[in-house]
Amino acid sequence: MRDFAEIERVVITHGPTALEFAPRLSATLNCNLYFKRDDCTGLAGGGNKTRKLEYLIAAALKSGADTLVTIGGLQSNHARQSAAAAAKFGLGCELVLEDVANTPKADFYSNGNILLDQLLGANIHRLGVDEDPQSYCENLMDKLQVQGKKPYFIPVGGSNVIGSLGYVRCAMEIVQQIEQQQLSIDQIVIATGSAGTQAGLLAGLIACGSSIKVLGISVSKTTEQQAELVTQLLRSVLTYLHLDPGLAEGVVHTDGNYYGASYGVATEPMIEAVKRCASLEGVLLDPVYTGKAMAGLIDLSDKGLIAENSNQLFLHTGGSQGLFAYREVF
Ligand SMILES: Cc1ncc(COP(=O)(O)O)c(C=O)c1O
């Protein structure tokens, strides 16, 4: 395997993030639930993109870039953390943000992540639901170059091989914490969207020789579509790490039963999951990712599809800033 510590990164994350037991929530489930608190990574509210940005910013700085360009939904947590990282490293930040159909609208355009993006100094390009963000970004990159800028493009969710390295590192951190706390974890449960978190985690677990299962609850795609997305990226990450891409075979587990009508659209079980975690553990989930993933975990537990008395680790990937955009549904 490639020498992982040698790969360039900037240090942003407040870590290791805590790995803690959730006793009151566990009492409502058929298993013991632990949280890995990546909602507390320290960058403008935290979340999973902080770890990805450590590698992406290092690559951007190495390329001589002076501006980050990235893409996401209007309430993207990735966009907020990219804007914060750009501010921290003195880079410009252009956010191309798509509207999301069938979301509550009273606060969607002015509160939550979008308010924070503005405070963090990002330049926002707001696109309608039918516009093509990819071609908009290509034009924007050209325009910035003509203006003499050096833009660096970060794909949606920071989910390319470089960004995923943040979760390779997180997997190594988890394996170490489990050892230190003398825990045995049966499964890690996460929300999966652009796939970098799950692909990185799996690559990191493989690199550590760990066989802990990772279940990705999809926020936008069917079980099969999401598994395909994660598998492709995992193969690329393994190749980058000089590991056998064939090790991706059979390790990708996804569940597409909990995102509801579509990405970003509230579901009743999500609302119940957000309220349950808040009232029992003082932990704030989010309406688009972790709320739906927790709703999935609760349902699987209720149906007896989680092994009785097993130890489940919920990787809290952040996003509670998005709650303010969804006030009406709560
Ligand atoms: C809070 C939160 N959780 C989970 C995810 C999903 O991570 P990934 O896109 O790496 O699959 C995101 C992505 O934007 C997120 O903002």
Compact overview of the structure:
This protein is of the alpha/beta class and 330 residues long. The chain has helices spanning 23-26, 49-62, 77-88, 113-119, 133-146, 161-180, 196-208, 223-240, 268-281, 290-302, and strands at residues 19-21, 32-37, 67-73, 92-98, 123-127, 151-154, 187-192, 213-218, 253-255, 311-316.
Report the sheet-strand fraction.
15-25%
The total beta strand count reads: 10
Number of domains: 2
Low-pLDDT segments, ≥5 res: none
Under CATH at level 1, the class of the largest domain stands as: Alpha Beta
Helices and strands, with pairings:
Elements: E1 19-21, H1 23-26, E2 32-37, H2 49-62, E3 67-73, H3 77-88, E4 92-98, H4 113-119, E5 123-127, H5 133-146, E6 151-154, H6 161-180, E7 187-192, H7 196-208, E8 213-218, H8 223-240, E9 253-255, H9 268-281, H10 290-302, E10 311-316
Parallel strand pairs: 2-10, 3-4, 3-6, 4-5, 7-8, 7-10, 8-9
Antiparallel strand pairs: 1-2
Give your account of this protein's structure:
The chain has 330 residues and is an alpha/beta fold. The chain folds into 2 domains: 4-48 and 160-329, Rossmann fold, CATH 3.40.50.1100; 49-158, Rossmann fold, CATH 3.40.50.1100. Helix content is 39%, strand content 16%. The chain is built from 10 helices and 10 strands. The chain has helices at residues 23-26, 49-62, 77-88, 113-119, 133-146, 161-180, 196-208, 223-240, 268-281, 290-302; strands at residues 19-21, 32-37, 67-73, 92-98, 123-127, 151-154, 187-192, 213-218, 253-255, 311-316. The strands form 2 sheets. The protein has a 6-stranded mixed β-sheet. A 4-stranded parallel β-sheet has the order 5-4-3-6, sandwiched between helices. Strand 4 (92-98), helix 4 (113-119) and strand 5 (123-127) form a beta-alpha-beta unit. Helix 6 (161-180) packs across helix 7, helix 6 packs across helix 8 and helix 9 packs across helix 10. The longest helix has 20 residues, at 161-180. It is globular. It starts with 18 loop residues before the first strand and ends in a 14-residue tail after the last strand. 52% of the residues are buried. The mean pLDDT is 98. Pyridoxal-5'-phosphate binds next to helix 3, strand 7 and helix 7.
